[in-house]
Amino acid sequence: MHAHKKSQKIDKIVPEAADFLPLLGTDHVELYVGNAKQAAYYYQTAWGFRPIAYAGLETGLKDRVSYVLEQGKIRLVLTAPLQPDGAINAHINAHGDGVKAIALWVEDATKSYEETIRRGAVSYLSPTKREDEHGAVILSGIHTYGETVHIFVERTAYDGVFLPGYVAWDKPYHAASTGLLHIDHMVGNVGWNEMHKWCDFYANVMGFAQLVSFDDQDISTEYTALMSKVMSNGNGRIKFPINEPAEGRKKSQIEEYIEFYNGAGVQHIALATHDIIATVRALQERGVAFLKIPASYYKTVLDRVGTIDESITALQELGILVDKDEEGYLLQIFTQPVLDRPTMFFEIIQRKGAQSFGKGNFKALFEAIERAQAERGTL
Ligand code: FE2
Predict the structure, then answer these.
(1) For residue 86, how far is its CA from the centre of ligand 1 (angstroms)?
(2) C-beta of residue 40 within 8 angstroms of C-beta of residue 50
C-alpha cells in the first residue's frame, strides 16, 4: 500500500493543484446515443430528470438532435445523428452509446484552451463564439482519453435556457425528482499501462493533483484486478478517478469495458444525494437495476465502519454499501450498465464526512460485478 493515508481534505491534500485552469464546476455531460428521444424519456421517467432544452430539425439542425435534461446541478445532453455517416455515427458505431463530452464550466474558455494546448493538449474545438438573442457563450475543447473530450464552457454573457441554438423544451408530464444533486465524480477506464499516462495528462495539462491511490493488492478478487488513481482539480469540485486493468486470473471488468467500448471511455458517473435510501428506493421502484450485494456483506459491514445513522435493514434491502475513512463514512450503490453494451453505469453516493471513494467496498463490489460478468459469459 503506497497510498498516503493522511487527511483527504482536498484543500489540504492538493496544495500543488495549479491555478492556470480554474474550473467552476461540471457544466454538462453529453452522451452520443442511437435514439436520443427514447434515452431522454428514460432519464426523465426512471431517473427524474426534467426536460430543459432541445435542438433539432425544428431549430434548423439537419444532422443531429439533442435533448437537455436537468436534476439539481446535473445536466445531461443526449445527442443522436439524423443522417448516415458523420462523427456522431462513427462514435456510436465504435463505442455504442456513451459519454462524448465532459463539459467544464470556466470563466474564460479561450484562456482554458490556450493554457491546456500550451501544455500538450490536443485540440478538439478552437475557441468559438456562439450567439443568439439571449447573449453569447464561448466554447473550446480538448481531447482526453479515448475519443472522449473536454469542452470548456464560458457562459458569463448568456442567460438562455442552455446554449445558443437550443430552445426551451417542456412537456406536461414531469416525473418526480429522485433527489439527485450534483456529479460527485466521473471515472475513466483506460487501457493496459495507460493509467499513469492519463494521470500525468490531468496533472500536467490540466493542473490536477492526485487525491488517493491504491495498488492492485487493494482491489483484486480471485479473478480480477484493477489499478486506480483519483485526480482532482484545485477546488475539489472536479474529481476524475482513472482505472486501468491489472493482471488477474480471468478477464477484469475493466478489460470487458475496453473490449465492448472499443477503447478508453467513461466507466461511471457518480451522482450525489442527501438521502440515498429515498433516492435508491425511488429509482428501484421505477425499474433502475442495481448490482446485487450478498447478505454476508451486511453481517460484517458495521464491524468495519462502526456506528451509522441509517438502518442496516434498509441498506441491505436496497443493496447500499458503506465505507469509511478518517473523516467520516459514505454510502454508495452501483447500477447495472445502463446501455446495451456492458459499458457505462451510474453510482449513487451520499457522503457523511468521508471524502474517499469506497475502497473498502471494492472487493464486495467486484465480486458482484463478476457474478454479472459470468452471466454474460465475459469473465
Ligand atoms: Fe465511483
Answers:
(1) 32
(2) no
Going residue by residue through the chain, which has 379 residues, state the pLDDT in tens, using 9 for 90 and above.
Answer: 333 333 344 444 455 556 899 999 999 999 999 999 999 999 999 999 999 999 999 999 999 999 999 999 999 999 999 999 999 999 999 999 999 999 999 999 999 999 999 999 999 999 999 999 999 999 999 999 999 999 999 999 999 999 999 999 988 888 999 999 999 999 999 999 999 999 999 999 999 999 865 554 556 666 667 788 999 999 889 999 999 988 877 778 899 999 999 999 999 999 999 999 999 999 999 999 999 888 888 988 898 899 999 999 999 999 999 999 889 999 999 999 999 999 999 999 999 999 888 888 877 777 777 788 888 888 7
Ligand 1 center to 166 CA (angstroms): 31
Residue 189: exposed, middle, or buried by beta-carbon count in 10 A (0-12, 13-18, 19+)? buried
Cell numbers for 158, please give them. 448568456
Q: In what helix (H) or strand (E) does residue 33 lie, and over which residues does it extend?
A: none
Q: Give Cβ neighbours of residue 94 (< 8 Å, ≥ 6 apart).
A: 147, 262, 263
The C-alpha cell at 120 is 500538450
Distance 64 CA to ligand 1 centre (A): 31
Ligand 1: centre distance to CA 241 (Å): 8
Q: Alpha-carbon distance 360 to 89, whole Å?
A: 40
**pTM (predicted TM-score):** 0.92
* Dist. CA 244 → ligand 1 center (Å): 14
Strands 74-81 and 25-32: parallel
Calculate how far, in angstroms, residue 130's C-alpha sits from the geometric centre of ligand 1: 34
CA angle centred on 101, ends 95 and 106, rounded to 5°:
170
18 by Cβ neighbours in 10 Å (0-12 / 13-18 / 19+) ranks as middle
| Residue 375 neighbours by CB distance under 10 Å | 9
Q: How far is ligand 1, taken at its centre, from the CA of residue 173, in Å? A: 32
- Compute, in angstroms, the gap from residue 322 CA to the centroid of ligand 1: 13
